[in-house]
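User: My collaborator sent over this chain with a note saying "see what the structure looks like." That's all I know about it. Can you take a look?
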Amino acid sequence: MAHPRDVLLGAQARTGTLPVCDHYSGVEARMRKSLQLQEEMTQEFGACVFDVTLDCEDGAPVGGEKEHAALVTELALGAMPGARVAVRVHPVDHPAFESDIEAIVGKAGHRLVHVMLPKVERVEDVERASRALDAAGAKGLALQGLIESPAAVHRAFDIAGHPRMQSLSFGLMDFVSAHGGAIPSDGMGVQGQFTHPLVVRAKLEISSACHAHGKVPSHGVVTEFRDQAAFRAAASRAANEFGYTRMWSIHPDQIRSIVEVFAPSADEIHKASQILRGAEAANWAPISFDGKLEDRASYRYYWQVLERAHGTGRQLPDTARDWFAAPASMKVQRRTS
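Assistant: Without extra context I'll predict from the sequence alone. Here is the result:
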């Protein structure tokens, strides 16, 4: 029987999936704890449900960039087999960019799942970073980009269209600051970032650009990590209203909330499994389910529900489990070339 991935994921479907949470840390003790937590939660969920991105931009002390890059390299090389470790380097116009790539990617590129490029302003920045990765011997390593200015938002569709770019994230705080006080500080808060028109527009542009090019839109920082109810509400809005399929964590307490909010419900998983098994029995022709017509367009949606369930460690029905045990099962990470 044909695998759903082979039948359904055509030109209009996403070209890859990522863990729904990307956890950022730049302080040595916290980076080590983050990697340990990733290992523990991978064992708990049966899947790696979040990436650990080691931060060389905001995490590195000014003047200590070289030493911090060496530390990040050591941590990446020492991570458990199969760990999903990434690094945020300095922007391409920063004096430390080239040395970051040489020190970290040149030595530990084979252990990284992606490189996060901050302050991407134009496609030329992506090209420059791509050349640097290639020169460091990491031609298959994906780039992710951080959109942080009004001009970058304007060019988001072009940036997302670059073949090396895997995902775009929204840099909320730099975006608000770039407006010179025209957006009040509330625009960086847990409520205002979902209501201020300029911030809302930026979020929607980035999400739409990613979906247009089969890339993963990643929602950025929500700083109110101690108010779990407010944080979960924000994560829910990002996922259900703004079209984001991944979200940043800046505190360990945020990780489980993101995984739970971005995971499909048990009812969704059950329905998706039933519909897809019915479709398979009909050789992927249209079927009737609960009095409603279902065809390959909706099958694609329900397959993505199951992929998201698998990637977030949800329990799958017996009827769906073998799709992910087969050799053709969807890998969480697709490395670009």
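A starting point for your reply to your collaborator: The beta strands are 21-25, 50-55, 85-88, 112-117, 142-147, 165-170, 216-219, 246-249, 287-289, 292-294.
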